[in-house]
Amino acid sequence: MSDDDKNSDALEDEGFTHRLETLVERLGGPVKAARVAGVSRQTLDQWRLGKSKVALAGAARLAKAAEISLDWLVEGRDTAADQAGTDAPVMKANPDELADGFVIVPQLKLEASAGGGRLALTGDLFKGDVVAFREDWLHSIGSNANRAELLTASGDSMEPTIRDGDLLLVDRAIDRVVSNGIYVLVFNGAVLVKRIIVRLDGSLILKSDNELYGEEAVPKDATSELIIEGRVRWHGKTV
Q: 213-234, pLDDT tens digit by residue?
């Protein structure tokens, strides 16, 4: 598809850009996602910011590549009733009435900061509500249900990718930076959600997706001071 296709049938749902970010992250970032959609990186960025109409054909390609239902991407259908017969990955769970193919992922009461960095007491961590994910979907993104937990993002530094109040599916099996991605980390006593970029010299860049925030370089000899709590594998609104 060429960029000219953006003038065709388009998606204008208010929540679409947020769900689009979920797919972009799952596909490995905007460069790969643009290639999958068949558009330029600039066009994809306009879609992500809600500044340009999104061609339905491009959305369909993204949904198919990410193994996500197009109904979920277009309409945001994510309740248990709407999930029947679709590939929607998440639902609120009742442990005694769990749908076939779903597994429980515990939700922590602590809010991880995606803002300026809020101090957090690790002693306040405890499991509360539970959310269920499709087990095959968890496996498809390389996450083990036994090591997955949910946090609630707080702040705006990772917008538009992650918004205040979003649920974060965190792979707690990952305790070090293995590649570029979004991680939950503890740095100087603060629990943060940041995009981490690995540089060739072994140093790291802690980056916020919100352009209003800066980035911080962590020299190679200081990377051991970062405590990696896990890697964010998925994010979405509460259901």
A: 988 899 999 888 888 989 998 8
Residues in contact with 16: Cβ distance below 8 Å, sequence separation at least 6, in sequence order: 54, 73, 74, 76
Give yes or no: residues 109 and 218 share one domain. Answer: yes
115 falls within a domain: yes
Q: pTM higher than 0.85, yes or no?
A: no
Q: In terms of residues, how long is the chain?
A: 239
User: Within 13 Å, how many C-alpha atoms sit on residue 39's CB side?
Assistant: 28
CATH number at residue 40: 1.10.260.40
Whether the ω angle into residue 106 lies within 30 degrees of 0, i.e. cis, is: no
In degrees to the nearest 10, what's the CA dihedral of 193, 195, 196, 200?
-170
Find the domain containing 168 and state its range: 90-236
Query: What are the pLDDT digits (tens) for 3-39?
Result: 444 333 444 555 677 678 777 877 878 888 899 989 9
- Which DSSP string do the residues of 71-97 spell out, in sequence order? HHHHH---STTTTTTS---EEE--GGG
Distance of alpha carbon 173 from alpha carbon 184, whole angstroms: 12
